[in-house]
Design a protein that fits this description.
With 503 residues, this protein is of the alpha+beta class. It has helices at residues 42-56, 75-88, 129-134, 158-166, 168-171, 191-222, 230-238, 240-255, 264-291, 296-322, 333-357, 361-370, 376-390, 392-419, 438-476, and strands at 2-8, 17-24, 29-37, 60-68, 93-98, 105-110, 121-127, 142-144, 150-152, 183-184, 422-425, 430-433, 482-484, 489-491. The radius of gyration is 43 Å and the shape is elongated. The termini are far apart.
């Protein structure tokens, strides 16, 4: 008689123990499901298998013994395995053994109730337990016999597949601790990984709750009235780093929210935000690794101060050109000298500040480079703010020129209305008629003449520094740059945009 033994490939490297599985008498075959390792208590094994039989409706039993000899054979171990057949008393009792560093196995089936001296021919069939477990097969077909009893269609292998599929509880036995009964099956090879996964699953809920609490706390602090004070509110609204961190905080709140997405659109939005943050952080880490290789931050710090000196020298040359006769234009010499010296003094102060900070530049850049781990956009925002701070004196020149130019335009427009007998009604926000006396007209004429002759010098400084500011804005800034005809000035986008009002 042929005895078929279906043996899982994952148990071929298991330690010595008992073979647990199902005996199919119609097919004269045994389906091995797992190996129970030593040491164990036979009573606990029988109780455990009885519970599994009740829950899975699969007749699980101890079919035999398994010996994986990593050392030379021991007679005591062989006798002990033979004695186990009397304890569990299954007929036939299957004994499988594997020698050390050998490809050949020893298969013996002992039948106590059989009187024939003929030995059974044993066929050992390997099967992939994981694929069989995860396969979606039809259940075994049942046929109604003449005596109204259900019998299995033994001509098919669906019984074997159904046996493995119904033994799911056996494979889920040892997720954390194997306990007093140690098993080997298709999930045993990844016990450590499954432990980590299960721990991460259980830790994900309190972690998300903690992150949500911290994000809500930070969001509450950001929305508090303490940040509405002028210096803090100005810095928060103008620095691109603060704006980027605010957007990142909102995105993290959306991702870590415990609320279920109401529709598929919101779910895809949350997935897109999570993916964009993941890619942003990955690119930031790559940038950080590139910066810290070959001392690139040191080279950047060494080149930063000479670059600032070069920009300052070019500005000084530009101011000296404006203080002469720029493009053959005749300027008001007194105002030209005052404005030129005023701007040159600012450049001198800025160069002194840069040289004072030069010993700390490398350290500042080293710590700024660590911010790339928060994402590439955060690093670019910090870089934009650094460039803005380094060119802040240029923007101050633009602000001074724009303010002086706007004041003169406003004064000329008011004096022009005086000549026409008009005035601006502040209450009604309109131009009304008005009668002026001789002294008012005389003083207005003098002021109008003075402002008109000083306007070309002021307009030239304003135009030059506006073009310089736009040039630097094209390097580090973005956004829309336009001309406000109502204010008579160019609109420079954040982070350093000062609103220059007429009044």
């Amino acid at each position: 008689m042929v005895l078929k033994i279906f043996f899982p490939f994952c148990c071929s490297s298991a330690e010595s123990g008992l073979l647990v599985g199902r005996w199919i008498s119609e097919q004269n075959s045994a389906v091995i499901l797992a190996v129970i390792h030593f040491p164990f208590i036979p009573g606990q094994v029988k109780q455990y298998l009885f519970k599994l039989q009740h829950m899975t409706q699969v007749n699980m039993t101890v079919l035999g013994s398994w010996t994986n000899s990593k050392q030379p054979k021991e007679e005591s171990l062989e006798r002990f395995l033979e004695d186990l057949g009397a304890i569990f008393s299954h007929d036939p009792w299957v004994q499988l053994s594997k020698e050390k560093d050998s490809k050949f196995w020893s298969c013996v089936a002992t039948q106590k109730l059989s009187d024939s001296n003929e030995e059974d021919e044993i066929v050992l069939i390997y099967y992939d337990q994981r694929k069989v477990m995860l396969s979606q097969l039809h259940p075994p077909q049942w046929s109604i016999a003449s005596n109204d009893q259900k019998t299995v269609d033994s001509s098919r292998l669906t019984v074997v597949f159904d046996t493995v599929a119904k033994s799911k509880l056996l494979f889920m036995r040892d997720q954390y601790d194997e306990g007093p009964i140690k098993l080997t099956h298709w999930q045993s090879e990844g016990v450590e990984a499954s432990i980590i996964v299960e721990l991460l699953k259980q830790a994900s809920v309190p972690t998300c709750m903690l992150i949500t609490f911290l994000l809500s706390l930070v969001s509450g602090i950001c929305k508090s009235r303490a940040l509405t004070i002028w210096p803090l509110s100005f810095i928060w609204s103008k620095l691109s780093t603060c704006q980027q961190l605010g957007h990142r905080l909102q995105h993290l709140q959306i991702i870590s929210s415990s609320r279920k997405a109401p529709n598929q659109t919101q779910l895809m939005r949350k997935a897109n935000i999570f993916l964009s943050i993941l890619i942003d952080v990955a690119l930031g880490i790559l940038l950080m690794s590139w910066l810290y290789q070959k001392n690139r931050i040191g080279h950047l710090a060494n080149d930063l101060v000479p670059m600032a000196d070069h920009v300052a020298q070019q500005l000084q040359s530009l101011l000296q050109w404006l203080m002469g006769a720029p493009a053959g234009l005749k300027m008001n010499r007194a105002l030209d000298q005052v404005l030129g010296r005023f701007f040159l003094y600012h450049i001198h102060l800025w160069i002194s500040y840069i040289h004072l900070m030069s010993p700390f530049v490398e350290m500042i850049l080293w710590y700024v480079g660590l911010s790339a781990c928060l994402g590439l956009t955060v690093a670019l925002s910090i870089l934009s703010d650094i460039i803005a701070l380094l060119t802040f004196h240029i923007y101050c020149f633009y602000v001074y020129g724009a303010r002086l130019y706007c004041l003169k335009i406003y004064g000329l427009s008011s004096l022009w209305r005086l000549f026409r007998g008009k005035k601006w009604n502040v209450l009604r926000q309109r131009v009304d008629s008005c009668s002026y006396d001789l002294d008012q007209l005389y003083i207005g004429t003098l002021l109008f003449t003075i402002l008109l002759f000083l306007l070309p010098t002021t307009a030239l400084y304003y135009l030059v520094f506006t073009l310089v500011s736009l040039l630097f804005l094209g390097v580090w800034g973005g956004g829309k740059v336009g001309y406000n005809s109502g204010r008579g000035e160019f609109c420079i986008p954040p982070p350093f945009y000062f609103v220059l009002k007429k009044d």
